Amino acid sequence: MTNTPLDRTEAATGYWDSPWPVECGGNRRQKARSGRLDAAEAETHVTLMRNDRWNVMTVRRDEDEWYLGGTMPAFVGPPPYGWVARFDPASLETLAESPQLPCGDHVWCGAILAHADGTVMSVNGSYLHRLDPDDLSVLNERRLPVDRAHNGLLSLSDGTLVTKDLRLEGQGGTTLTFLDPISLEVTETLLLPEGSMGRIAADFHDGTDFIYVPGIEHIWKIDVVKGRPEISDWRCRYRSIDSDSGLAWDSCISDGYLWLMDCGDIEGVRAIHHRLPNGRFDEPAGNLLSWQRPAPWGSPQRLLRIHQNSAHLDSLEPFGNSGGGIIAPPVNVPEFETAIAWDSINGGLAGISTAGGLSPIWHLNVKPSMQPVVFPESGELVINDFTTDQTDDLIVVDIATGELLSRVKTGSRLANGMFLAAGDNRDIYYCSTLFWARVAWT
């Protein structure tokens, strides 16, 4: 199969000129980076750091200017807070760190981004912060209008910031909040008819930003016309309220489709968001927060493909095992006419042909949970595998064949659904609870 390069650049962006200024590399969440690892024949080098924090994601501003953002896993005890650190891209040494950032006492994975105006933005819990890129001092702080944990942060084509609160089934509608990037003043709010768990994705065509929101029953589209958000007539119903399945996480916008997986509101996610403040417990929650617990439904894991124009839905159960579950969304690689899906609870990674219908072309017996990275030029997928020995490895997989090209022991003994990011020197930044790391292939 040929891997003809496609145009993966964002049509318009409110980000700093960087190949990875925001989670998943861009608003379409394609998780793709130019270049190649050539991992099969390479030596690997791991730099592991333990900071006892909930490490969520890394983003890049200028060359050699990388930032790590996260929160504190303070499910009990002293109040949690958010933080952002600037680090040396090779040694991972901290070069600067923000003060403790208020989060409204919510414990959940927020987001950071490198904005077009040069500053670093951080959303955590119910607060948004604008930070100086050099010393990470606070330039502006905004308590968001909804006192719940917020899930994700994007910059639209004109630099406007957008975030949303997270609500599960039975918790009412989710509010999208739009903010001025300089003052952090709220410019618009939009209440959806449904709650929403997954993070937002966005696209831009003909002068209009389009935001896609995974809801309880539907995938919603928001049109932002001249700065005013409106709920579009476009929507896709992907589940019914009485179905024996779970909610969808984020979309990957690729090749004219949205790509999602359902079965995401596993017991740990429900435990965190069925209380206020989110994620705060009177006593240690222990195994209740584990993503490895059996799913609270009987449905197998599904891959969903939704046409961006018609909203037509195709779905596939790549594994067929009951009680499937995930904590991160899929990825599509149109250069190989292949989408990648997995089942974190039961295990299994699959390559799925997208030529016409959806059909599995390979399976790999691994247990992924994270947001992956793809290198379309070399046909390499990077994702984690939480092993039976309860260690979290990084694996590199051939997208076309499913061949395991490389396995690297990170040294982390905890896995979650956080974000991998592609570095500048055949390397990957890995984020998890308590640990984070740089893995390089040379």
Give a written overview of the molecule.
The chain is an all-beta fold. It has 1 helix and 31 strands. It has one helix spanning 267-273, and strands at residues 44-60, 66-71, 82-87, 94-97, 111-114, 120-124, 127-131, 138-143, 150-155, 161-165, 175-179, 186-191, 201-205, 208-214, 218-225, 228-237, 252-254, 257-261, 303-307, 313-316, 331-333, 338-342, 349-353, 359-364, 373-375, 380-386, 392-398, 404-412, 421-422, 427-431, 433-441. The protein has a 7-stranded antiparallel β-sheet with strand order 4-3-2-1-31-30-29, with no helix packed on it. Strands 5-6-7-8 form a 4-stranded antiparallel β-sheet, with no helix packed on it. Strands 9-10-11-12 form a 4-stranded antiparallel β-sheet, with no helix packed on it. β29 (421-422) and β30 (427-431) form a beta hairpin. The two termini are 27 Å apart. The model is unreliable at 1-6 (pLDDT under 50).
Question: Which spans have pLDDT < 50 for at least 5 consecutive residues?
Answer: 1-6
Helix content: under 10%
In quaternary terms, these chains amount to single chain
- Backbone shape: globular
Mind telling me the C-alpha Rg? 20 Å
Number of helices: 1
Structural class: mainly beta
SS elements, strand count: 31
